[in-house]
Amino acid sequence: MRVTFATAEFAPLARVGGLAAASAGFVGELRRQGADVQVVLPDYGGTELRDESTLTLPVPAWAGPATARSGHLAGVGEITLVDAPGIRRSHPYLQPDGSGWLDNDRRFLAFSAATASLVEATAPDILHLNDWHTATTLAHLASPPPTVLTIHTLGYQGQTDIGWLKVLTHRSEKFEFDGACNPLVGGIRCADLVIAVSPNYAAEITTDETGFGVAAILRERGNRLVGILNGIDTQEWDPSNDPHLGASYSADDLSRKPALRDDLLDEFGLHHGSGPVMVMVTRLARQKGVDLVLPLLAQLRDFDARLLILGSGERDLVAALEDAQALHPREVAFREGYDEALAHRMFAGADVFVMPSRFEPCGLAQMQAMRYGALPLVTDVGGLHDTVVDVDASLLLGTGIVVRSPTSVDLLDGIHRMARVFAQPGQRLAMQRRGMAVDWSWRQPVRTHLEWYRRLIADHV
User: Fold this and answer.
1) How far is CA 364 from CA 146, 321, 355, 360, in A?
2) What is the CATH number of the domain that holds 429?
């Protein structure tokens, strides 16, 4: 089975958020299960490929010239990098000041037009698109192959000026929504199957409260909207064989984890107390609920707790965390940016992983944290609902604490409940082992995708 997989991000080549890790993990397992996958990514520049070949892509004048470079990249495998007007930038989406490139609409509409030309040249059995950046590929294919569109986050739809509809060759009316050109809406309408990245998120986005204005369109898809939980790379995230850690451990033997906890506190310059070490590894965005934690920092001392945060993003949140670190130097430490090795050490040294998202399509970090024996404290949204079992709802199955709503009040209640768990070593150990024992890999999600691929191909004949 030949699959063309088009995405704006692919780890480690182009990494901004969870899309990159999800794309890379999914494709790696898809290949292991026998699929022939052509990964198509914008050519942001600076990437050399081994055994490279180049193809000129016929595209409309506004989207050209366009070319595709295909070859081998260490750590990634075979990949095709598509160049079109404006694609080559220092960051996939953002200017140095943190605002979006003013021509992001043109850049990704041109990338999609070029991807469509590549699809016509290669005739895959399945076309798998991801988010709005690739959705208008379907507006340039008269007879597309069976097509899957994965929604990694509904909040970003690529909505732009209605004038762009004039350059869409086929089914342009499907991309009109609310007086604008909306790439994601068009993709939802045109794809043979729409996949949300967790079952609960698939349900949430069909409600008017959390459907980002397009719930009715998603409801129209009926049983062609499904939720399939993402996985993680369980070889990369494995505390029993992690080169980033000073010691290895497993669910059967957690005896080395306390030493890693002490090492982490030393690295951040925090005191060694008896209370829980809590960490956040996150994008600094309102979606992630970082602002919900800020009013609670003064109360960490009541629990002898410490909070370590690693992340980058919105400047006001960066400034607020810097101020919090200065105000609470014994309890709070903040590192701006993303450091993958440090993320591994933080999960390994943490007692608790905090993820108070307002919405979370799937979430990968809570699965990574559980893999390392850090107990998740999360909100009851999206994929967090699907992956964390509240211990107060099920003592025998619980893996963490799930708070009812994304508010500081509920989060404080969750911290109190987690403190009670922390004070009971036997219960805490049982929860750690349950979370570490779950198969968070891509194996079953990919099997489910392949079943859908085969069904779509059969329907297409």
Assistant:
1) 28, 23, 11, 10
2) 3.40.50.2000
Where does the pLDDT of residue 204 fall: very low under 50, low under 70, confident under 90, or very high at 90 and above? very high
pLDDT in tens, 291-328: 999 999 999 999 999 999 999 888 899 999 999 999 99
Same domain, 194 and 63: yes
3-state secondary structure of 139: helix
Amino acid at 212: F
Q: Are residues 208 and 316 in the same domain?
A: no
Mark whether 358 and 456 lie in a shared domain.
no
**Distance (Å) of CA 258 to CA 19, 42, 264, 277, 421:** 32, 43, 10, 11, 17
Compute CA distances 98 → 84, 91, 141, 319, 333, whole Å: 23, 10, 34, 14, 23
Q: Is the residue at 246 inside a domain?
A: no
Is 385 in contact with 360 (CB distance < 8 Å)? no
Is residue 70 included in any domain, yes or no? yes
Question: Are both 56 and 173 inside the same structural domain?
Answer: yes
Domain around 28: 2-231+442-460
Give CA–CA dist 285/202, Å, rounded.
Answer: 22
Residues whose CB falls within 8 Å of the CB of residue 197, separated by 6 or more in sequence, listed in order: 22, 150, 151, 152, 227, 228, 229, 230, 361, 362, 383
pLDDT of residue 45: 94
Cα first-last separation, the chain? 15
Residue 151 domain-assigned (yes or no) = yes
pTM over 0.85: yes
Claim to verify: residue 22 and residue 163 sit in the same structural domain: yes
**How many Å is the maximal CA-CA distance in the chain?**
67
What are the residues facing 176 on neighbouring strands?
Answer: 181
Residues contacting residue 380 through CB under 8 Å, at least 6 positions apart = 402, 403, 404, 405
Answer yes or no: do 263 and 290 share one domain: yes
Phi, psi (rounded to 5 degrees) for 308: -115, 130
